[in-house]
Amino acid sequence: MARTEGFGELRWEEVGDLRGEDGEGACPADFRERADAICDESAAPLPGPPVPPGLGRPHPDRARQFSPFAALRGYYELVHEKEVVPEERRPLAEEEARAIQETLESLPRGAQVRCTFYENAGYRTVCGTVSQVDMIYHDLWIVRRRIPFREICALEAL
């Protein structure tokens, strides 16, 4: 069977009235008026088949086959974790620890910061807005990320 043989009998179908049974529809009035105008103008049948011969599927949901799909949940997070180069944690000097502590004490909520901290056998750097500095539990919150004070190795206000 040739590819064009299956499409020979396809024709455009006219859409019926947009109003419901009671004459009123769920559509806004201006939409109904525009649809009526379009239907009046296009009362003549459309020429030719709806799809040129040999183009494939003529139905409206043809593009569904190309929709994005994540087959493996959590895969990209796992890959990003593996990107961190494993390093040994280096101890902070007293001067560095004191400077970080002073910065944390003077840091207002909503400030922009760049924070480098130790996590999962590697150093990470995060830039963002400070949502909370918790002096009771010793945590710095940058947007929704919780960073314990003991893990911070560099903190810079932007």
List keywords for this structure.
158 residues, alpha+beta, SH3 type barrels, 5-stranded antiparallel β-sheet, 3 helices, 5 strands, 22% helix
Through-space gap between termini: 69 Å
Oligomer description: single chain
Fraction of residues in H or I helices:
10-25%
What is the number of helical segments per DSSP (H or I, 4+ residues)? 3
Strand content: 15-25%
- Gyration radius over CA: 32 Å
Global outline: elongated
List segments where confidence is low: pLDDT < 50 over at least 5 consecutive residues: none
What's the SSE pattern?
HHHEEEEE
Average residue pLDDT: 76
Number of domains: 2
Helix-strand makeup class: alpha+beta
Across the major sheet, the strand order is 4-3-2-1-5
Number of strands: 5
How many strands, which pairing sense, and closed or not: the largest β-sheet?
A: 5 strands, antiparallel
Structural features, described:
The chain has 2 domains: 69 residues, no CATH class; 64 residues, SH3 type barrels (Roll). 22% of the residues lie in helices and 22% in strands. The chain has 3 helices and 5 strands; from the N terminus they run αααβββββ. Strands 4-3-2-1-5 form a 5-stranded antiparallel beta sheet. Strand 3 and strand 4 form a beta hairpin. The longest helix has 13 residues.
How is this structure best summarized?
With 158 residues, this protein is α+β, with helices and mostly antiparallel strands. It is built from three helices and five strands.
